[in-house]
Amino acid sequence: MSKKLVVNSSVLIALSRRGTLEQYLKQKTDEGYEVLIPKAIARELLDDPKRLARKIRKMSPTLASKIIQSVDAIDAAIEHELIRVETINYRKYSRVVDNVRRQLSQLEAKPEHAIKKGDPELIVLIIQLYDKFKEKIFVSTEDKGLLRAIKPFSDKVEYEVIEMTPVWRRYHI
Amino acid sequence: MPERTVFILKEVGNPNKARIVAHLAKHKGEAAEDLGKHLGYPLPTVYKYLRELEAARVVKSEIRNRTRLYYPSDFKLEVSPRSLMEIFEEQSIFSLYKTRFGADGMKRLEEVTEKAKAGKMTFRQAASTLGITYYEFVSLMDETGAIQ
Fold first, then answer.
1. Residues B63-85, mean pLDDT to the nearest whole number
2. Of A24, A34, A89, A150, which is the most buried if we count CB atoms within 10 A?
C-alpha cells in the first residue's frame, strides 16, 4: 500500500511557479507516496489564482499568463491523479474541526470564524487518513505556523514532516 | 513602478478626472461639494471620480473640521516606448502588491512575513491579515526568497 503524503498548497504553488511540479510529483509517486490534498486547498489552488489572473490580465498580461500556467500545471496534476483531492467527513470530524479552529484562533488571537478553511481541512485530513489506514501519515509544508497547529493533535495521529529536498530548492526562479 | 504608471494613465486619461486633478493642484484642499460647484459636475459623479482617483493614489484626502478635503498626490508621469515596454515586461506579484498597497503595505508585509516565517501565524492567516489571497502570499514569499 502506498504511503500517504498530505501536501500543503505552499509547496504546490512554489513548485508550479518554478515549472517543476510534475517532476516532483512523479518522483514522489516513484518513491511510493500518494499525494493528497483536501477540497478547500484544491479550491484555493485553482479558483483564487484564476480570479487574480483575470483581474490583472489587461494590465499585466505576462504575469497573468504565468499564473494561468501554474494553475494549469496543478489542474493537470489533479486530472492525471498525481494529486488526489480528498473530501473531509465533516459529520464525523466536526469536533476535530472545531478544535483545530480554536487552536488556530489562539495562534493569532483571531476569532474562530475568521479562520480560513484550508488550515483546518489540512489538519483534519491528516487525522482522517490516519484513522482510516492506521499508518504514519507524511506531511509536506513550508508553513511553520501550520506545523505548530498540528502538534497538539500528535497524540491522535502519527505523522512525519518531510521537507522539500535540496534538489527541489535549487529550482528557485 | 511600471504598473503605477498604468494606474495613473488610466485615471487621468479621463478628461473629467484630469480636470479634477488640475483643479485640486490649483486650489489645494477642496471639499467634494465645492469641486462639484466649481467644475459643474453632479455631486455623485464627483464622489465616484474622487473614490477612483484616491484608489489609484492620484489624489489623497484628510478630514479637517469635519469636512473631507481632497489634495493632489505628488506624481510624475513618464511615457515613452521604453517605459511602456517596462510596464509589460517587469511584472511580478511583488510589484503588483507594492503598487496596490504602497509603502505602508510594504511595512506590513515585512512584519507579517516575519511572523509567518517564525511560525507565529499560518500562511493563510498571514494572507488574510494582509487582505490578499493565499496564492499571492505564497508567491510573494517565493519571489522574496522567504520560502525556498
1. 84
2. A24
Domain that holds residue A123: 3-167
Residues in chain A: 173
List the grid coordinates of B119: 511560525
Domain parsing of chain B, residue ranges: 2-72, 92-143
The contact set of A with B (CB < 8 A) is 9-10, 13-14, 17, 44-45, 48-49, 51-52, 56, 59-63, 66-67, 104, 107-108, 110, 114-116, 118-119, 142-149, 164, 169, 172-173
pLDDT of residue A168: 46
Inside any domain, residue A13 = yes
* Residue whose C-alpha cell is 473531509: A88
Phi-psi region of B40 (alpha: psi -120 to 50; beta: other; left: phi over 0): left
Classify B2-72 by CATH class. Answer: mainly alpha
Residue-wise pLDDT for B75-96, tens only, equals 888 788 877 766 666 578 888 8
